[in-house]
Amino acid sequence: QVQLVESGGGLVQAGGSLRLSCAASGNIFRIYTMGWYRQAPGKQRELVAGFTRSGDTNYADSVKGRFTVSKDNAKNTVDLQMNSLKPEDTAVYFCNADIRPWGYERGRDYWGQGTQVTVSS
Asked: What's the mean pLDDT in 69-90?
């Protein structure tokens, strides 16, 4: 069993900062990708930032220059530092990872439970 557990999030004023953390645990053989998605009310879930299989980073255009994604391979964690937050960043943020568990031949898609980020104007 593999789990993604998120922490952080909350309520912040526009211009403020928040940090989200996600830790993967359990029956992990290899982690291929890790990153963050978000879903605002009435909208589709979208990629915010993450690491590709090659270790490169991807960012949504709307967060470039404001958000920074980082990871610790030894701890199986991925963090999202969010600065200069805007009301339009309000959403539920989900950790996502492509993880190959022990005993499996390929990776599987895993999601965290989601954490609310609310930015007030």
From this structure: 98
